[in-house]
């Protein structure tokens, strides 16, 4: 494994300049398919007897560089990039699980993931028990005979709870199931889940990794540590009818999972990333460290400022002393607590909507991790489809506003919020005098 630091690997890992025509920037290999030398060469590629590109749904040289780079940054053995963060989650779970299997997941999850686990996968016979992740033992308590995976977010979106990855990974190990950690909000600059025992790491590359709001993408990184031959995963130990009788654990050993994601997952579900988007994401990844440090700095300062505003009823940011997650945040995210801040306002649902409408620098949209500041009122938008109860368990109260704090000057961000707060104050005053 390389001894190079994050900033260096983010610029260089996976890109062999000489074998890529001397290119200093990673080129876009915009080609659907790749020419075989002859039929024997083709047969070898399909038989996995030698490495090489076949078809961009399965592999592509631009994507390959991004995959190697992400694996290096996470300390994993390999990665697969996908069309979106949700594609990364769905492809991972569908590669691992079959009808009748069960997931234990943190109740504090991204809305899309919550729906996948709560509504869509049950239609295919895969069910989930959601647990309060603040006590790692809850995962074991919810584990059944057919449980095959634990799923968490390192820094929950939008609850902003910091999870004790190490403690949860110990529960996963005791139950002989892999731990999947969605590391989208924290990014692998702030925390490397594999170092704390995660078996599989998920990223939405759409967010901080790309950072420019120009491309959707996702990634699956395999730590290479899980024992797929432990008796719970016949998918890996019995001959695969979907790949001419291949027994993954015999041939691919500790790379069994990530290999199956590619050669059966990408092949059959088609959740592959466009090389053009891979290129775009590589541009962003080069500066991830610089950006996430500044996002974290701006977010902390803004969170402290919000605490002093009379229209603000509560502020949640893992870097604040008042946060119940401060201790875990300092332990797992010593370099910064990322760029998301949530807060509540006087006047609840209606005021929160007004603020989302009246800010000008903060764009009202459903995304996070952009260089530009973003705002959303989840209860009326991203989490609107969830029941009141589900909104509560995912931490989305009616008055909650989520900010994705960008890289603008902090004074301008404060001024923008201030003018929106003033409108809310005036409305409330008016209503009380009527
Ligand atoms: C956005 C997000 C996803 C989904 O990623 P897409 O690229 O939008 O599909 C998954 N997990 C978390 C935590 C996210 O914020």
TrEMBL record:
Gene3D superfamilies: Aspartate Aminotransferase, domain 1, Type I PLP-dependent aspartate aminotransferase-like (Major domain). This is Bifunctional O-acetylhomoserine aminocarboxypropyltransferase/cysteine synthase. Pfam families: Cys_Met_Meta_PP. Keywords: Pyridoxal phosphate, Transferase. It is an enzyme of class 2 (transferase). One of its GO terms (molecular function) is pyridoxal phosphate binding. Its EC number is 2.5.1.49. Its cofactor is pyridoxal 5'-phosphate. The lineage of its organism: Bacteria, Pseudomonadati, Bacteroidota, Flavobacteriia, Flavobacteriales. PANTHER family: HOMOCYSTEINE/CYSTEINE SYNTHASE, HOMOCYSTEINE_CYSTEINE SYNTHASE.
């Amino acid at each position: 494994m390389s001894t190079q630091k994050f900033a260096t690997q983010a610029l260089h890992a996976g890109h062999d300049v000489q074998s890529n025509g001397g290119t200093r920037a990673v080129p876009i290999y915009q080609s659907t398919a790749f020419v075989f030398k002859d039929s024997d060469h083709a047969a070898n590629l399909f038989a996995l007897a030698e490495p090489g590109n076949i078809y961009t749904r399965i592999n592509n040289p631009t994507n390959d560089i991004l995959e190697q780079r992400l694996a290096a940054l996470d300390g994993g053995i390999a990665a697969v990039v996908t069309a979106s963060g949700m594609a990364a989650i769905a492809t991972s779970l569908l590669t691992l699980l079959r009808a009748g299997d069960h997931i234990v997941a943190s109740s504090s999850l991204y809305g899309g993931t919550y729906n996948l686990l709560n509504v869509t996968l049950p239609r295919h016979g895969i069910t989930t028990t959601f647990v309060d992740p603040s006590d790692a033992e809850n995962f074991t308590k919810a584990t059944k005979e057919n449980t095959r995976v634990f799923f968490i977010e390192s820094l929950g979106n939008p609850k902003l709870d910091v999870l004790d990855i190490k403690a949860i990974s110990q529960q996963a190990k005791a139950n002989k199931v892999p731990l999947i950690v969605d590391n989208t909000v924290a990014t692998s600059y702030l925390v490397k889940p594999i170092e704390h025992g995660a078996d599989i790491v998920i990223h939405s590359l759409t967010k901080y990794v790309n950072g420019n709001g120009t491309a959707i993408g996702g990634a699956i990184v395999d730590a290479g540590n899980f024992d797929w031959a432990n008796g719970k995963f016949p998918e890996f130990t019995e001959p695969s009818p979907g790949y001419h009788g291949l027994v993954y654990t015999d041939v691919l050993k500790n790379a069994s999972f990530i290999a199956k994601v590619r050669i059966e997952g990408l092949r059959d579900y088609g959740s592959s990333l466009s090389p053009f988007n891979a290129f775009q994401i590589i541009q962003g990844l080069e500066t991830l460290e610089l950006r996430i440090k500044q996002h974290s700095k701006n977010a902390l300062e803004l969170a402290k400022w919000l605490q002093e505003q009379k229209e603000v009823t509560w502020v949640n940011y893992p870097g604040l002393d008042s946060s119940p997650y401060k201790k875990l945040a300092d332990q797992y995210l010593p370099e910064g607590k990322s760029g998301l801040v949530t807060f509540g306002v006087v006047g609840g649902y209606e005021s929160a909507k007004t603020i989302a409408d009246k800010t000008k620098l903060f764009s009202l949209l459903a995304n996070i991790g952009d260089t530009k500041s973003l705002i959303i009122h989840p209860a009326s938008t991203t989490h609107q489809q969830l029941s009141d109860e589900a909104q509560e368990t995912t931490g989305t109260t009616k008055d909650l506003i989520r900010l994705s704090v960008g890289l603008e000057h902090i004074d301008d961000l404060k001024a923008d919020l201030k003018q929106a707060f003033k409108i809310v104050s005036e409305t409330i005053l008016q209503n009380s005098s009527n």
